[in-house]
Design a protein that fits this description.
By secondary structure, the protein is an alpha+beta fold. The chain has 2 domains: 80 residues, no CATH class; 160 residues, NADH Oxidase (3-Layer(aba) Sandwich), CATH 3.40.109. It contains 10 helices and 4 strands, in the order ααααααβααβαβαβ. Strands 1-2-4-3 form a 4-stranded antiparallel sheet. The longest helix is centred in the N-terminal third of the chain and has 21 residues. It is globular.
Length: 285
């Protein structure tokens, strides 16, 4: 039995493999690259379990080929994307578990966006990622409404402002009183002129709908941050009362809005704010 196995996978071979397989199977080059990396990753684990070394040159070469070719994770087959843990990541996508901690710091509430549309396909991918969130009894009650029409976002902003100001007139001591001056400004857009708005909604009769949809919202914001996008949960954006507007945006009558989240390309990412030390009330052991 051989005591040492040497594997050499050149960039040229990897390129020929991907081109040939792509033509044969009809898959995109991105999907083929991901499949190739899954296979090599599995082989590496197989060798490591047997005390054999895996040459890193091939993976470095493929990573260089990947970046040089301009491939991105957009459009990649979802099952392949979830199986592969180390796909190269343009647009800020992390490709190592250690980068998760950097992602925790990178996710910030963004309220100043570039005048640049977020591709609908990319929004769909982020939504797909958010559906990986846990939910009570795996009920997955979340539903999504995508608004990427600037005029409609302005109309939704005006509707919410009107309803909140009416609420303040009835409840002048309400905690949101501090926002009154800002809400009365005609040009103030509660969605901060973001290019896209996502409503995460769920059935009214599901007891855990707020918790489940909030978990999905967290996954949504982290997935967006991993792709170099900025988000902000705008609680004021849920105060829609006009039946015509609700019907137009596709809001089911048996559902409620849990999380209005704006998303776009940030002009800048603010530094993380200081956090209080966790208050551990007791350790029972």
């Amino acid at each position: 039995m051989c005591k040492k196995i040497r594997l050499t996978v050149t960039v040229d071979f990897g390129k020929r493999f991907m081109n040939g397989f792509s033509k044969l199977s009809g898959e995109t080059m991105e999907d083929v690259l991901t499949l190739y990396r899954i296979l090599t990753s599995s082989l590496r684990r197989f060798l490591q379990k047997r005390g054999l070394n895996w040459p890193s040159k091939s993976l470095k070469g493929l990573r260089h080929l990947h970046l040089k070719s301009g491939m991105t994770n957009q459009g990649i087959h979802p099952h392949l994307r979830y199986l592969s843990g180390n796909v190269s990541a343009p647009q800020g996508r992390y490709n190592r578990m250690t980068d998760f901690f950097e992602l925790l710091l990178r996710r910030r509430s963004i309220r100043d966006f570039e005048a640049k549309e977020v591709p609908l396909g990319l929004v769909r991918q982020i939504i797909r990622d958010s559906c990986l969130a846990p939910s009570s009894a795996n009920g997955q009650p979340w539903r999504f409404i995508i608004i990427n029409h600037i005029r409609w976002m302005k109309r939704l902003s005006d509707e919410c402002k009107k309803n909140f100001l009416a609420y303040l007139e009835r409840n002048p001591e309400a905690p949101i009183k501090k926002y009154e001056t800002t809400l009365r400004k005609e040009n103030f857009n509660i969605f901060y002129n973001a290019p896209c708005l996502i409503y995460i909604v769920g059935p009214k009769d599901v007891a855990s709908v707020y918790v489940d949809c909030t978990l999905a919202a967290c996954y949504f914001m982290f997935s967006a941050a991993a792709r170099g996008l900025g988000t902000c949960w705008v609680g004021l954006g849920s105060n829609i009362r006009d039946p015509e507007i609700l019907e137009t945006i596709g809001m089911p009558q048996d559902c409620k809005i849990v999380a209005p989240i704006i998303v776009g390309y940030p002009k800048s990412i603010p530094a993380p704010l200081d956090r209080n030390e966790p208050q551990i009330l007791k350790v029972v052991s």
